[in-house]
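[Automated response] Your request has been received and processed.

Submitted sequence:
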Amino acid sequence: MMHRAWQRVASKWHVLVIFAFSYAPLFVSQHGKIHADTKLYLTEDPAGLISRSVFAWDASQFGGFVPHQAIAYLWPSGPFHLFFDVVGMPQWITQRLWLGTLFFFAGTGIYVFIRWLGYTTSASLISSLVFVYSPYVLSYQSRTSAMLLPWAGIGWLCYFTARGIRHRSWLWPALIALTMFTIGAVNATATLLVLPAPILVALHFLPTHNGMRSVLTFTVRTAVFVTGTSLWWIVMVAIQGRYGAELLAYSETLESVSSTANAFEVLRGFGYWLNYVDLDSLPLTSATQKIVTSPLALLATVLLPL
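Generated structure:
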């Protein structure tokens, strides 16, 4: 009894530690400055961006065009920025709160899942902080933070999958569907790339008693819910893919996005192609300059994953 009580107390304190480590460093760094994050309108005019995102045709730019992935700002980034814009929060604070919230949910998801696997609270805390402080996030947090949404949901997807297969309740597929509703719209590829994690969790149950039946039942329920809660963005992406400009054929060719994914960069989690793009010898993502040029930064980002 005493051991269980101590575990509960430790878990609460560890969640507070994750909270502090998710938000505090962001407010210390670049105090008072905003990043060119995701879309300028997301910070400057979230209400206008949301109002335009509900339509497949945007008449406000280029004489009218079919926007690319604009529907993603209907949830959750758009309402988040709109709320703090309405209450008069300074933009630089809103950006830090947004990033901190992503880090917090990512960290708590990993913490809960690692605890479910049977590891100690201390091991779970270390795993959580390592996940949140991975060099991987540096590629996205100041430029395309919305791309971190699927990353932030990995731990929760794994936990809901494990609980859902074991308990055979509709609750867990519903929670997965709500998670996918929140993290799935911003980029279909990024969403697909996090799915192997919960799939591996599901495969873990196959050798158990009635494992095949439990996994199949859970998979069908989850597929029904996830499809229903994802149609809002799947349909719009299909429309944009058919009638919109072929932006990716010019801005993100296979050669461009894969040229920086060499073994060294993949090891340190920093092979994202946008980090290396420059215009007139000036980097488009200035926050990455030190990461790719500083010997100390190069050494640190290799030692961390090792």
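Summary generated for your ticket: Residues 211-243 form the longest helix (33 residues). The mean pLDDT is 86.
If you did not submit this request, please reply to this message.
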